[in-house]
Model the fold of this input.
Amino acid sequence: AALALVAGGDVHPDLVLADYNLPNDMDGLRLGVVLRERLRRYVPVIILTGDISTATLRAIAQSVCVLLHKPAKPTDLTALVRSLLLGAAPALPETVAPRGAVLHMVDDDATLRATLRLVLENVGYLVHDHASGEAFLCAYQPGGAACLLLDARLPEMTGLQVLAQLRGGGGAMPSRC
Done:
């Protein structure tokens, strides 16, 4: 229902509060990703759950969402909503994301790439995302302002191997692995 409201253009949420377990093969994490993609901006997502399984807690920890355990106290929920709304998508100084600068993001996790891309684009970055080190190296054109956000544990070619090849070819740039 939330997706239909956003698709209709009538609703533009500033925050999403979702249960982890949702009907129709959907969970709160996936809902957050899809809503952010459709809105083309970062929206804070609170995941409410009583599920304390390792898999669920790991999935929430790896997402760009905030966990709130059931049963939640109204004062805790209110404080969390207030802090997320006041701190959502802060503007970064221009020196952090200069005009024309490209942030290259390399990660094999498509959901993480989509979420980070929305967050980074919302604060002014031009983002090029790549699913593998090989894909990045094929697409990268040296020159111009650029930065690399790189997963260290990629299949096939690791993040460190990508850096070594990049530096060996004279295309070094600021990076975080």
Q: What stands out?
A: The radius of gyration is 18 Å. Helices lie at 2-7, 28-39, 54-62, 74-87, 110-122, 133-139, 159-168. Strands lie at 16-19, 21-22, 26-27, 45-49, 66-69, 102-106, 126-130, 146-150, 175-176.
